[in-house]
Specification:
single chain; 3-stranded antiparallel β-sheet; 6% helix; mainly beta
Length: 498
């Protein structure tokens, strides 16, 4: 009996009137329901002697009458449900992910080999029989959500979250997992219906047809209801460009996604369209021209031409040809230093297109300093403890230490770091600043305080005499320099530190 039933059922007779049947793991098409495998493992139950005899007779009759399916061939390709014979025994390719090993692995295989899990032994056979006509593959029901329309097509390498749905070959798949746990939905080897383990990442939800309709009915600006230029595969597109395909209008996304706008297989309306293009809505006819832009009448000409070497800040205006651009003031001004206004990918990040222009902008008044101090202040010196409001000069330009970022003024030379916020450029200068009036003592205290002594500990506000001049120890944190030694003594080059 064991040989007839292919070791699926082991009989252990205990006495004349009853027997125990010991079921081991069963893998057979009849034990599969949908995509869930039904398994019975080590279940013990009692059957009557009459029932056992009937089962034995049926099994033996069925086994003895089975014909052999076509012989297994190492050059053939097999899949789930394939029926073959080998050495007068019939086998069936399993209905799970191990079916990938049916091809190239001859049944029954050595213990531990791929063939042992890929092929299911059906029993001995003799003669020949044709495999049963294949039944049509059961089709999952139509996903009625969104009227049966398909979600976005599966895109390899995309990071999918739990619950995300994609379409592949007309079927809808949903990413498994939870919001708190990592999933394999975007990993290589886990694409829907691909490889051995895809069902660990995806579950099939049903079929779909057509494209998923937009969630809201997008419309074009009523001031410009016509269609923009038709998409041209040979053209180069940048962020913000608008095109039309049929009666739909699209806009190229911001950098870095704008890089997809000119690539093949990413055309507007394609399955990969949403990587580079935004669907704006429907359109009709041609786009009406906007009102001709004009410059401020107080400066009708073109500003200075854009220069890659320019030190541009928020609000600066430049011209490229007869078009005026302004460096954005929304925190994106650093991009003005990295990209020109018409850079294919980064131009729109920092620059805002204003209008057209003609000629040149009238020059503004020449910047000048307070006539009371027309010369240049001291040159910047690294390591000097500059404070908010301190002024220095670098290459005939005057800079003032910023009140908020003054901590960097000591170590960052003015004009060397783009968009440096520690130094504010105030203007140009020439020569040196005229000396201030000779300091005098308060007439209420006409005498000199004690002379400076490097061995004396001084505190903020202490006054000393050095070379006929009176000095007071600073009352802020820099007062610590008053006790830093002779190189910081009153009247020395570093005297102003303490």
């Amino acid at each position: 009996f064991a040989s007839c039933c292919v070791e699926k059922i082991n009989i252990f007779c205990t006495h004349k009137k009853s027997a125990f049947i010991h079921f081991q793991k069963i893998e057979h098409p009849s034990a599969h329901f949908g995509r869930h495998e039904f398994q019975v493992n080590r279940t013990m139950f009692k059957v009557s002697q009459a029932a056992l005899a009937a089962a034995l007779s049926i099994s033996i009759e069925a086994a003895s009458s089975a014909g052999c399916y076509p012989a297994y061939s190492s050059s053939s390709t097999y899949s789930s449900g394939s029926l073959v014979s080998f050495n007068s025994t019939n086998y069936e390719c399993v209905h799970n992910h191990y079916s990938v090993w049916c091809t190239g692995h001859q049944p029954p295989g050595e213990p531990g080999s791929h063939a042992t899990v890929a092929w299911l032994e059906l029993g001995p056979c003799s003669g020949a029989q044709d495999p049963p006509a294949p039944t049509s593959k059961p089709t999952p029901p139509l996903v009625t959500e969104f009227g049966g329309a398909c979600p976005a097509a599966f895109a390899p390498g995309t990071e999918y979250a739990a619950g995300d749905r994609v379409e592949r070959n007309g079927f809808v798949f949903e990413c498994r997992g939870t919001a708190d746990n990592a999933n394999w939905c975007g990993a290589e080897g886990y694409e829907p219906e691909t490889g051995m383990y895809w069902e660990n990442a995806w579950k099939i939800m049903g079929t779909c047809r057509g494209l998923l309709p937009p969630t809201a009915s997008p419309t074009i600006d009523p001031d410009a209801p016509g269609c923009p230029p038709v998409f041209d595969q040979a053209a180069t597109y940048k962020s913000g460009d608008r095109v039309s395909v049929g009666s739909l209008s699209y806009e190229c996304k911001r950098y870095p996604w704008s890089a997809f706008c000119g690539l093949a297989n990413f055309e507007p309306g394609s399955s990969n369209s949403d990587l580079g293009w935004i669907l704006l809505g429907s359109c009709d006819g041609t786009l009406a021209p906007t009102t001709a832009p004009t410059l401020d009448p107080n400066s009708p000409g073109c500003p200075a031409k854009y220069s890659p070497d320019g030190d541009y800040q928020a609000g600066d205006r430049v011209s490229v040809g007869s078009t005026v651009y302004q460096c954005k003031t929304d925190g994106n001004s650093p991009f003005c230093l990295a990209f020109g206004p018409e850079h294919e990918r980064g131009g729109s990040l920092g620059w805002e297109k204003l209008s057209s222009c003609q000629g040149t902008v009238a020059p503004t008044a020449a910047p000048s300093f307070d006539p009371a101090t027309p010369g240049c202040p001291e040159s910047w010196a690294e390591g000097t403890p500059y404070q908010a409001g301190d002024r220095v000069s670098v290459s005939n330009s005057i800079y003032e230490c910023d009140a908020l970022y003054h901590a960097h003024c000591t170590f960052r030379e003015p004009g060397t770091v783009p968009d440096d916020e520690s130094w504010n450029k105030k203007g140009s200068c020439e020569g040196t600043i005229a000396p201030t009036s000779t300091p005098t003592l308060d007439p209420a205290s006409p005498g000199c305080p004690a002379s400076y002594d490097p061995s004396t500990p001084y505190a903020g506000g202490d006054a000393v005499e050095a070379d006929g001049l009176v000095y007071q120890c600073r009352t802020d944190a820099y007062g610590a320099y008053c006790n830093a030694g002779p190189e910081y003594a009153p009247g020395s080059p570093n005297s102003d530190r303490g």
